[in-house]
């Protein structure tokens, strides 16, 4: 077994588990993160000589615990603070009966505390739960690495200073807290499904799988919450297409060109069942339920030519009222192109220029519409801008090929 591959697999599978275990014990995200990082660095040094341990997760957790204790012993003043923190965390009221005892879910709720700004919650969750590096997160947010590092540090400091507890909220607090957690998990899933880190796989299944796992746990906590069900359905219907989304050469495969026989039909069936269950309630759907319904229409078509675009546009019309964001308007325009033609869609897309000028998908959509209208030079320019802004290697390869085909 290649040791580098083993360390990489262990990092993807065990990072969040190790960080969560240390956070529970020491009550400090900073200590947990640094000790976990040191444990993985030790694995890189020792596993080539000693061999990969039978239980890498247990080895890493034990090593990280020792690293944390050594650090705290070196910092006597910090140790006093840690004792206070441990006492505080141990003194929290017991969780309600039926709460899920999952350390990573506790970590998500800690990182997603409402005292933190939404962008900070996402960045901290990507770092502590997803294990992304600060440079990877900075690229995802289109900010400088130093600025992202400071943002994450301030978030951990705020959690420590405010004594934010490491636990799943009580049943009474869950409804108010869950919307922020769902937003973060959706963004974590998206980062996995269209990874932006240089040198990483274009699709990070570790992130998509963890986002789905955690959303399933939240659904157990809140089985009647429509948006929890909607987000889970959306993730499942999207994940079902993962194996067909990147070609053997590493290029993104657009939805209309995918081999639908390669889709995971079990995930499709589960996702569509969740969508139908929510429709049957007669309760007005929220953002995630509408996005899931749109994906259900796509996955119901055996061939792209069978897609019910009128239904998709109608769903986008409802979504615009719930979420009037320029990205939703952009996706609606792409669907409108299939009904009313690329000229009508292009006019709608061009109205979004000021809001989405730095968003690669805006330029990619515009390039495709210009290509379909036979406006080659303008399409090439739009492709160039999309390639410049895209951070995913598979997507860049796809856009480059489409641009070069214009010649």
Automatic annotation (TrEMBL):
The source's superkingdom equals: Bacteria
Q: Where is the RNA polymerase sigma factor 70 region 4 type domain?
A: 109-158
Which Pfam family, giving just one, matches this sequence? DUF6596
Keyword Transcription regulation in the entry? The reply is yes
Give residue ranges for domain DUF6596: 177-275
- Please report the stretch or stretches of sequence annotated as the RNA polymerase sigma-70 region domain: 17-77
Family statement: Belongs to the sigma-70 factor family. ECF subfamily.
Q: What is this protein called?
A: RNA polymerase subunit sigma-24
